[in-house]
Design a protein that fits this description.
The structure is a homodimer of 248-residue chains.
Chain A lengths: L2 H15 L1 E3 H8 L3 H13 L3 E4 L2 E4 L14 H12 L7 E4 L3 H9 L6 E5 L2 H9 L3 E5 L2 E4 L4 E3 L1 H8 L5 E5 L2 E3 L3 E4 L2 H13 L2 E5 L11 E4 L6 E3 L10 H5 L3 E2 L1
Parallel strand pairs in A: 4-5, 4-9, 5-6, 9-12, 12-14, 14-15
Antiparallel strand pairs in A: 1-3, 2-3, 7-8, 10-11, 11-13
Helix pairs in contact in A: 2-3, 4-5, 5-6, 7-8
Chain A binds a DNA duplex (30 and 30 nucleotides) through α3.
DNA sequence: CATTTTTTTGCATTTTTTTGCTTGTTTATA
DNA sequence: TATAAACAAGCAAAAAAATGCAAAAAAATG
């Protein structure tokens, strides 16, 4: 393993877990702890991380997109991990934005080769870091609130593709109203995404389940997978499973 | 094995595995490591890969970590400040990517109301933070090395707009060859940008002046403004000013 | 075709970088 | 305070890089 690769790996671990132990890194990468220490020293000298006794911590403002104040980060990480199972080599994946999707973008395994379409700036930013993923950005006007592109151009572009999978971070889902949201522009885009994709997976923390907002994105039966942080056998999901949705 | 073949093989390996070792290449192609080193040096000089101790890494790999340390940041801030003078309320501005443009994006005054078009992820991210700026993202495939969109869709989109001003961060400019760059895809997009805009401003640190790369973006006389960190009366600019370019 | 020039390549030598190890010191914490 | 872990500094071996040089190959020239 080359020195630069090692340092890249360390930074990735730091961005993923916010902290690393020298001993872990040493065994993971099969080099002596001295080497790790020297790497950490270099990275800390260039302000890439904060070196502490035994390892290193992430510089809170190091990443362009702050993660400190993400609501229910652990739950979202868990969701992202489950969602990984749906993504296979060679797939064309269309994704929305949102913090859950961004967590997913961060943990995509390096060996994965796939093509990702998105209109989300932070998501595209994360995808673009990945060595083997081709990223197609769906351009148009950027909605300030959500950092994703909205508008006719974007929708036309989405209509012109046929991805295998759509990963949708959503704000509200319930049995009778389906997937809903409050932002008109965003709803138009997400609608188009669900229509375009062969299958749609909905990612949400359970807190948002059985809630409803003003505008409909799609019906429950258009959703193939529901991914939350809870065990898929929980009672909460019974009624959803009955509609044919696969709970992960 | 011919030199050209060898270098093509190296690039193929880089695209395949994101990394190569000089020693591997040496045995695989039955040439001395010196030769490999010289090949890697050449490829690195034309920005095809990142040369590191022991081998080389793919550009996309590199972009995934060492981004925070911006070269000549102070100079770039100064350039950004000068460029501000060109941007007026109500303008439609088309911008490339690059660290200088991103500095500019960061210091746009809050009162400014304008519409910005860009294909650069980090630039769009900065523009989107601004309260009064409308951001239109030019979508297409994202080039890993430079974090900007490239390709036919992007170029078509650029051709369909008529911005007042194009702000171009460039890597090389000289009197006889004009504005040049090394990345074919990026050159296509920048070409389209210059063609589309009423006026083009070139932003560059003086270090890159009077240097030349392999592919032409535009002639000197297509540039309306040249913005560097140095005083506009410096001798360095005399010849440029004579061609009618306004030096800021 | 002969000859000059340029490019390419490998080799020897020196220099630099990287890495693991040892030794003695510091630090965290039970 | 005791103790194990982590650290810093220096050292040495190995790997890689830079440098200069010369032979071979290729290209250009008359």
């Amino acid at each position: 393993m080359l020195k630069r690769e090692r340092q890249a790996f360390i930074l990735k671990q730091i961005n993923l877990h916010n902290r690393v132990l020298s001993s872990d890194l040493s065994t993971e990468m099969q080099v002596s702890e001295d080497t790790i220490r020297r790497d950490l020293l270099e990275l800390s000298n260039t302000d890439k991380l904060i070196k502490v006794h035994g390892g290193a911590l992430s510089k809170s403002f190091h990443s362009s997109f702050l993660r400190e104040d993400i609501y229910q980060l652990d739950a979202k990480k868990m969701i992202a991990n489950k969602a990984l199972n749906l993504i296979k080599d060679g797939m064309f994946v269309l994704t929305s934005g949102g913090t859950t999707i961004i967590e997913l973008a961060r943990i995509l395994p390096v060996e994965l080769k796939a093509t990702f379409f998105t209109g989300s700036i932070p998501a595209a930013y994360e995808y673009a870091k990945h060595p083997n993923i081709e990223v197609i950005f769906i351009g148009d006007k950027i909605s300030k609130g959500s950092q994703i592109t909205v508008g006719g151009e974007a929708i036309m572009k989405i209509n012109s593709i046929k991805p295998d999978l759509c990963l949708l971070g959503v704000n509200a889902i319930d049995l009778t109203n389906g997937v809903t949201d409050n932002d008109w522009d965003v709803v138009q885009v997400k609608k188009a995404m669900v229509e375009a994709a062969s299958k749609t997976a909905v990612l949400t923390i359970t807190e948002k389940m059985n809630t409803c907002q003003k505008l409909k994105i799609c019906e429950i039966n258009q959703v193939a997978y529901l991914i939350t942080e809870m065990d898929h056998q929980a009672d909460l999901f019974k009624a959803y499973a009955n509609t044919g949705i696969e709970i992960l």
